[in-house]
Amino acid sequence: MSAILIKNVEVISEENNEIFNIGIKNQVFSYIGKETPTGFDNAYVIDGKNFIAVPGMVNTHTHAAMTLLRSYADDMILMDWLQNKIWPAEANLTGDDVYWGTKLAIIEMIKSGTTTFADMYFFMDRVAEAVQETGIRASLSRGMIGLVPDANEKITESIELYNNWHGQADGRIKVMFGPHAPYTCPVNYLKRIIDEAGKLGSEIHMHLSETAYEVSECEREHGMTPIALMNSIGLFDLGTLAAHCVHVTPADIEIMSSKNVRVAHNPQSNLKLASGIAPVPEMLAAGIIVGLGTDGTSSNNNLDMLEEARLTAMLHKNNKSDPLVIPAKQALNLATKQGALALGFSDVGEIKVGQKADLVLYDTRKPYWYPRHDRTSLFVYAANSSDADTVIVDGKILMENGNLLTIDEEKVYAEANKCGLRLTK
Ligand SMILES: [Zn+2]
User: Fold this and answer.
1) Collapsing DSSP states into helix, strand and coil, what is residue 390?
2) Number of structural domains, the chain?
3) What's the CA-to-centroid distance between 41 and ligand 1, angstroms?
4) pLDDT tens figures, 120-145
5) Which of 169, 187, 263, 316 is the most buried (most CB within 10 A)?
6) How many angstroms is it from 251 CA to the middle of ligand 1?
């Protein structure tokens, strides 16, 4: 796409909180300032008046095609929910189901201001297709479970996924290996995964220490917490994105900090499945990178990252001791820049010259945008993600004035509805 010039837009970013012109060229922000930049004579111009520009949100943990199971099984605790509802339905999934379910999720993400997501699921080549076609950015992992007859095939699929898709779609796609969790992957299976991932240089995306039950079972079986066990077999040496980390001890946090384990914090999912509240302020104080995630829509019901940021800012206010409070600005940083770092995208997550141009314009012609004492605070505590009006990823417009430019919305709704109803029959 040619260059884009966004004129007179209010910007929320780490450094800037004013009205600027934003120039986008060659997939990156090339100008942010008060002047009209040179070299943009033929640029596509967007009038930024009445809009606020926010870095695209980064959803660090989801199972996108679980949109198909949305509202199928609610109000249950994790193990009962997985074993009796989710896993039996997922056994019927086809590649087409995953393709349409993922596209449904991508529509929801774009429309609510998310520009990057980390996905762990099955038929990931079809997820990669959906990512490539729609223009969104993603880190993809084939979920692997060791307690099934085709456990080895899942490792082979992960290797193929890495070889076929890592770095593809102009660098918008990354691939990680995705062992599901300590309670579904025996140690010998994990060692094979570590071996294969190590040969390729792939990182790991895994559920860790999600529930108290998982931790106590792991301690009973191995005499160690899940974090200590993963450390003992060398998993963290590959680079790890750990989802949840709700039940981690101070010793676990020390290990995570020393091994640069990055965390995907999923507050809504953890609350809905009654798993608990992760000690995010303690992890941040230890220097751990923490991003935010929604988890799958079967546990969370939506993919709204603004809700996750708001909840993160609110959940960690109970303790009045200063370092343990997460202010709005920090919550937004976790939802954007820190999330991008958690996924290994170092040039994503900020509206800053040289960064990849992933940006969302929110319509501020709403009552809750007045008065403008603090734009970041208004965005995190008062705004609505459905106010996302225009979305740019990698310098390309994916949604303009609420219209999706790379997806046939009606077709996706019809196909996803068909797939979802068939799966749960
Ligand atoms: Zn998950």
Assistant:
1) strand
2) 2
3) 46
4) 999 999 999 999 999 999 999 999 99
5) 263
6) 24
